């Protein structure tokens, strides 16, 4: 994302799963940053903890349920709509169907061209 946050990062060794092709991915570290939605006259800011990873993805950041709960945001996936309360009124954000399609297409292309070695033999050996 082009941010110089190395001085704010704390190391992390716990892996997360089901994000990239393969068994697991280990984040480089975590950082807590302020995230603001809205305009200068109507906005909402919260501190959000991010896990920094070093892999290619069609997304810059993924907000999970804890972040949505922190903002008290309500997603309407079918309409690509996100609503959350702010200081003066409800903030409404609309997604772009064409951009979403492009991101999904990039992710599929990346996964189909970059195969990781099959490590299922290693997993079975460790399990035994």
Describe it:
- The protein has 128 residues and is of the alpha+beta class.
- The protein has three helices and six strands.
- The strands form two sheets. A three-stranded antiparallel β-sheet has the order 1-2-3, with no helix packed on it.
- A hairpin with a 4-residue loop joins strand 4 and strand 5.
- It is globular.
Q: Using only CA atoms, what is the Rg?
A: 18 Å
Describe the largest sheet: 3 strands, antiparallel
Output mean pLDDT. Answer: 81
Which class of secondary structure composition applies to the elements?
Answer: alpha+beta
- Secondary-structure element order, N to C: EEEHEEEHH
User: Order of strands across the biggest sheet?
Assistant: 1-2-3
Question: Between the first and last Cα atoms, what is the distance in angstroms?
Answer: 42 Å
Uncertain stretches of 5 or more adjacent residues? none
Strand content range: 25-35%
- The count of strands amounts to 6
- Helical segment count: 3
Shape: globular
Q: Share of helix among residues? A: 10-25%
